[in-house]
Structure formats: structure tokens, C-alpha cells
């Protein structure tokens, strides 16, 4: 929507309205409207201009005075002008005094021979466009009060234009919505320069309406395409604004029994796309896919991945189309890979996606740093979920158990108190992996066959190895860890241990418990429990029972 500079500098030639039609004159905004200084003076002067314009078409030129105040540097005066414009053009829309149809240029109307009433409506429609354009600019004003008022006024115009359309219907029952005006609103919200998070929080209330939600999704696609096309390097501010808006859009889980439209309709047609949840899902999908196809900042990847499993995937028309974004995120490493695997896991189990490298990717995330990163709790929560199926092959589960046991040798106590039950739970779920702790008639080995450097769990030879690391941890310096490692000497028929309470355990809490336990905890939870046998009748020891010698008799004796 092109902006008309109706409130510009002094002494610029303008077309103004007179009772007989058009005239050309020099118009000075600086001295036209006499008023007292300040917001109160502006309110009274604007009120007089408003009454004059609405009372008589011969006073239409007073619109210029109203629009001029929108350019004021005083934010209180701007607010008064916005309120005046809201009342003025709201009334003109309701009275049908704005031109309806393809808007001709003012010059074409001036030289034409049409009647004065038509010329007036065209002229006033141009003033309305100037007002809307300025309101769109005010969405980026430094004062939040101005931005909030401009947003409310534009949304009022959206509602009124929907009820009193400024375009002619193509056929009877044609669905009309002021899309150009609404794109102006969305474009202002998705500013490349201004952080609009607070204003977007105000806009969320409009998203409860079906028509606003539907057209927001469509307008967001156009705005993202326009901004990314205009900038070689898109500002982070724009990406954050766009994510804030997109993540605020939420669809109903099932087709609503009654539609909630912001633009009031006397009756709804079944042919309108806006009235069907299926079409909303398509628009939702197009909105997110067009956003995620771009190269996003790493901070934004994380924000998207945190919500993808419960706020995005369930609402897409075709969730499998997210595979490109998720695999791209999976290659970024660290927390982003983990979060991407969560989305891929949902696609695999709920949408029959084939992704053979899933567990290889997860296996590759297991390194010493995993015990020290701030997303440790989320990692092990998700890893527990990914490895929960009893149908996983034994070699795969054994590889994860062995890798965790090896990493446990250098892990801090607070991590060990969570990892040790995690490993025991894997053994409980997968009886085929019991050979890692008891291998009857197993051969004597001089070295551990497990290849810790192998990236493919299938080739790591973990199932040929044993969990000698757990016996070593029974001699850990911290009594709580020693006690936790000794639990593996109990029967595996014991139900799984929930690791949820252990995920957020801190070093402070661990050492606090150790001090409270005192010497008694050291004696009761240390080496004394190491001799209790497994339910299968074998001790966890170096030699034939394990099938591997571990690091040497000095550690395991």
C-alpha cells in the first residue's frame, strides 16, 4: 500500500477538495490549524476538525490538518491524532463515503467528467490510505503507547473494511477480507529494525479468531519472503519477531463446532477456506516450512526445536515434510542435534518415517562433555525415551550401555548417580544384554574388544565386551556413587528405577547428602556390598564370568 505524503512539509502543492470538485493550491501544515500547545490543545482542535469533516463535505480539507498531527514529534499529540483518525475513518466506512472498487489515481479523477460525489469518495479514499500507511509506520514508534494505539486502530479498520468492503465481490457470496490492509499490519509487526515482542503479545488476542489466524499465517509467508528478498543478511531482530508471531499461532485440535470470526458475518459459506480446519493446517504448514527453509541463526534453531514436537508437528497437514529441517539441524551438533532427534523420533514412530541413521546420530552425541552441558537433564530424559522400546536389537542397546559405562569412569558424582541407574534400566529392558555382566563359559580375554572410537554402534563390538567399568565404580571415592554402582549386584528382576528425580541433581546436593551420611554411609555403601551376587548366580568380576579382563587385575581384584 503506497504511502501518500498528505502530512508533509509546508508550502507543497496539493490537490484539495472544494464543493465544486478539485482545486490546486499551496497548502501549509504549519499554520492551518490554530490550537493551544500540548495534548489537550491538540485534542480540542482535532475534535473541531473531526466534527467539521463529518458534518459537511465542504470541510473535507480539514482532513489534512488531522493527518498532519500524525507527524508530530510529541507522542501524546500523535495519540490524539490516531484516536481522531479512528473515529473519522471509522464513521466514513460505516457511512459508505469511501470509494469502492479499484482505486483510480487522483489525477485521473480530477480530469474526468464523473460526478462530484464519486470524486469526493475517491479523494477521501486516498486520504484513508495515507492514514493507514502512517499508522503502519507508527507500529515502529519508540513509544509503546503509540504503537499499541496504532495497532488497535488498524485492527478496527480491518474489522470495518471486512463488514464494509472497499472492493467489489467477484460473485455473490464471495469471501472478502481486507488482505492488503492486514498485510500492512503483519509487516509492521515483523519489523527488521524494531523488537516487537511486546506488541506481538498484544496481537496474540486477535489470533483467537479463525479469520485473523488464517490470514496471519498467509500474510506471514508473504512478509518473510519479502524481507529475505530485500536483505542479503537478514537482521536477527526480524527472525526473532517472526518466530514470536509464528509460535503464537495455535490451531484447534479438532474441527470447531462454531467459528469465531473477527469480521462479523451474517452467515458462513461452506465454500470459504477460512472456515475449515483442513485449510488452516495447510496454511500453518506453509507458514512454518517457508520460514524454516531459510538459514536461521543458531539461537533460533534452538527455539524452534524446543517446541517442534508438541507445537508444530502435531498441527501440520504433512508432518513428514519437516524431515529436511530436522536432518539439517541434526548435523549442527550438541543440544541442537539432540532436540532435532526428538522431532525425528516422533516422525519415525508416529508417521512411519524411515531414518536409518537415527541411533547412530544419538550414539555420536555420547562424549565426555554430555555430563557437563546445561542440557544434560534433557539429553538423558530423551535418550531414555529413545531407548525405551524392547524391540531394539541387542547389539544397539549394548553399544549404548557400554559407551555410557566407559564415559562414567571420568564423570562427576552428580552425573554418575543418574547414569548408573540408566545403565541398569537398559539391562532390565533387554535381557539379551545380560551377557555384559554374566557370560557363562566365556573365554578369557586380555583386552576389551569394545572399540570406543567406532562411530557405528553396530561395529563397536560392545556385545562381545562386558561392563567391568561398573565394578570399578564400586570403589569410587564418593559413598553415594559406590552404593549406586553396587546396586548392579542385585537381581535384575527388580523393577526399573525412575531416573526423573535424578536428572536435575547438582554437585551441591550430592556432596550435601554425602556429608549428612557421614562415616556410616561410607562403610555401608562402599566395598562391603561389592560381593553380593547377581540373580544369575555370578559375581561381577574380572575373568571368565565377564569374558574380559578389563583394565587389569589391579583395578578389579
TrEMBL record:
Membrane topology: Multi-pass membrane protein
Ranges where the CCAAT-binding factor domain occurs: 337-485
Keyword entries, A-Z: Membrane, Transmembrane, Transmembrane helix
A UniProt-annotated Pfam family: CBF
Cellular component terms per the entry's GO annotation: Noc4p-Nop14p complex; nuclear membrane; nucleoplasm; small-subunit processome
Gene Ontology biological-process entries: ribosome biogenesis
Top-level taxon: Eukaryota
Subcellular location: Nucleus membrane
Protein family: Belongs to the CBF/MAK21 family.
Protein name per Swiss-Prot or TrEMBL: Nucleolar complex associated 4 homolog
Gene: NOC4L
Amino acid at each position: 500500500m503506497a504511502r501518500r505524503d498528505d502530512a508533509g512539509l509546508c508550502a507543497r502543492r496539493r490537490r484539495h477538495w472544494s464543493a465544486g470538485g478539485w482545486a490546486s493550491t499551496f497548502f501549509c501544515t504549519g499554520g492551518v490549524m490554530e490550537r493551544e500547545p500540548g495534548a489537550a490543545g491538540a485534542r480540542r482542535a482535532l475534535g473541531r476538525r473531526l466534527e467539521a469533516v463529518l458534518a459537511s463535505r465542504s470541510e473535507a480539507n480539514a482532513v489534512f490538518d488531522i493527518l498532519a498531527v500524525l507527524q508530530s514529534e510529541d507522542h501524546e499529540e500523535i495519540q490524539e491524532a490516531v484516536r481522531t483518525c479512528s473515529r473519522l475513518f471509522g464513521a466514513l466506512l460505516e457511512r459508505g463515503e469511501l470509494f469502492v472498487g479499484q482505486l483510480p489515481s487522483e489525477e485521473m479523477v480530477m480530469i474526468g467528467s464523473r460526478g462530484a460525489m464519486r470524486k469526493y469518495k475517491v479523494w477521501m479514499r486516498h486520504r484513508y490510505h495515507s492514514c493507514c500507511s502512517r499508522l503502519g509506520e507508527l507500529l515502529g514508534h519508540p513509544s509503546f503507547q503509540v504503537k499499541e494505539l496504532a495497532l488497535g486502530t488498524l485492527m478496527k479498520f480491518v474489522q470495518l473494511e471486512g463488514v464494509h468492503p472497499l472492493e467489489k465481490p467477484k460473485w455473490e457470496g464471495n469471501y472478502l477480507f481486507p488482505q492488503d490492509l492486514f498485510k500492512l499490519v503483519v509487516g509492521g509487526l515483523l519489523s527488521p529494525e524494531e523488537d516487537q515482542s511486546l506488541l506481538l503479545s498484544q496481537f496474540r488476542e486477535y489470533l483467537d479468531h479463525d479469520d485473523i489466524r488464517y490470514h496471519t499465517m498467509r500474510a506471514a509467508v508473504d512478509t518473510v519472503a519479502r524481507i529475505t528478498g530485500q536483505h542479503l543478511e537478514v537482521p536477527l531482530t526480524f527472525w526473532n519477531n517472526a518466530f514470536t508471531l509464528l509460535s503464537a499461532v495455535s490451531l484447534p485440535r479438532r474441527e470447531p463446532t462454531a467459528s469465531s470470526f473477527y469480521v462479523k458475518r451474517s452467515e458462513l459459506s461452506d465454500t470459504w477456506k477460512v472456515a475449515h480446519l483442513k485449510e488452516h493446517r495447510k496454511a500453518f504448514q506453509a507458514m512454518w516450512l517457508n520460514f524454516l527453509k531459510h538459514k536461521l541463526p543458531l539461537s533460533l534453531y534452538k527455539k524452534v526445536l524446543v517446541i517442534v514436537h508438541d507445537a508444530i508437528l502435531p498441527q501440520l497437514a504433512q508432518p513428514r515434510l519437516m524431515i529436511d529441517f530436522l536432518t539439517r539441524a541434526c548435523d549442527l551438533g550438541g543440544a541442537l542435534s539432540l532436540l532435532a532427534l526428538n522431532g525425528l523420533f516422533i516422525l519415525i514412530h508416529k508417521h512411519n518415517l524411515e531414518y536409518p541413521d537415527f541411533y547412530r546420530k544419538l550414539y555420536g552425541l555420547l562424549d565426555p562433555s554430555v555430563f557437563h552441558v546445561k542440557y544434560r537433564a534433557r539429553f538423558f530424559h530423551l535418550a531414555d525415551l529413545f531407548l525405551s522400546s524392547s524391540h531394539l536389537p541387542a547389539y544397539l542397546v549394548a553399544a549404548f550401555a557400554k559407551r555410557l559405562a566407559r564415559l562414567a569412569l571420568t564423570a562427576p558424582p552428580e552425573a554418575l548417580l543418574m547414569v548408573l541407574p540408566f545403565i541398569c534400566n537398559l539391562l532390565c529392558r533387554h535381557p539379551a544384554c545380560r551377557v555384559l555382566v554374566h557370560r557363562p563359559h566365556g573365554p578369557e580375554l586380555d583386552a576389551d574388544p569394545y572399540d570406543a572410537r567406532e562411530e557405528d554402534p553396530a561395529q563397536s563390538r560392545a556385545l562381545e565386551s562386558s561392563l567391568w567399568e561398573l565394578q570399578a565404580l564400586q570403589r569410587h571415592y564418593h559413598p553415594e556413587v559406590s552404593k549406586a554402582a553396587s546396586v548392579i549386584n542385585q537381581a535384575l528382576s527388580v523393577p526399573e528405577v525412575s531416573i526423573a528425580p535424578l536428572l536435575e541433581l547438582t554437585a551441591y546436593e550430592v556432596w550435601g547428602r554425602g556429608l549428612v551420611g557421614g562415616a556410616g554411609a561410607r562403610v555401608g555403601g562402599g566395598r562391603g556390598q561389592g560381593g553380593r551376587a547377581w540373580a544369575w548366580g555370578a559375581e561381577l568380576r574380572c575373568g571368565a564370568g565377564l569374558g574380559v579382563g578389563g583394565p587389569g587385575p589391579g583395578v578389579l581384584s
